[in-house]
Amino acid sequence: MTGQVLVDTGPIVAILLESDEHHEACVGQLHRIRGPLLTCWPVITEAAWLLRAYPQAIRKLLSSFHRQPFELVPLGETDLPGITAILAKYESLGIQFADASLAHLANRDGIETMFTLDRRDFGVLRLAHGKKLRLIP
User: Fold this and answer.
1) Average confidence (pLDDT) over 88-108
2) Dihedral (C-alpha) 76, 38, 41, 7: value to the nearest 10 degrees?
3) What angle in degrees, to the nearest 10, is found between the helix axes of 97-109 and 80-89?
4) Which CATH number goes with the domain that contains 66?
5) Is 118 helix (H, G, I), strand (E, B) or coil?
6) How many separate domains does the chain show?
7) Between 55-67 and 41-50, two packed helices, what is the crossing angle to 10 degrees?
8) Which of 105, 99, 71, 74 is closest to 87 using CA atoms?
């Protein structure tokens, strides 16, 4: 698969932890994606918190930005209204800040594919023009 792909917390954690139940599926999907997986600081923060009992996995996560497969996409002050609007629109879902940040990036940068294990939230989210995200794996 080619093109821009945003990556959520779940696949990052699964890729880094061999004991994760989704490890094999996510590593397999990782090998089918050509190009970097784009993500943002809220996702990295969430992943680091989930990996807090695995310091080596956190080091591996942070070093994965120097050699791929991940690429950090910047979020700035001008992105806050867009993220806030998504949080408000999907408040009844209890959408998390990291997910809202990814949805905002999808809208901002025209990215339509999300590497996620979170079908509940991302299956409901719509891009600004009403289109559903393509979810992998």
Assistant:
1) 96
2) 130
3) 120
4) 3.40.50.1010
5) coil
6) 1
7) 150
8) 99
Interatomic CA distance for residues 73 and 91, integer angstroms: 24
Separation between Cα atoms, residue 43 and residue 12, nearest integer Å: 9
Cα separation of 76 and 83, whole Å?
Answer: 11
| pLDDT (mean) for 46-65 | 93
Domain range enclosing 52 = 5-136
Q: Residue 95: which residues within 8 A CB-CB, separation 6 or more?
A: 86, 87, 103, 121, 125
DSSP structural state of residue 110: T
As a whole number, mean pLDDT of residues 30-59 equals 93
At 72, give phi and psi (nearest 5°).
Answer: -85, 125
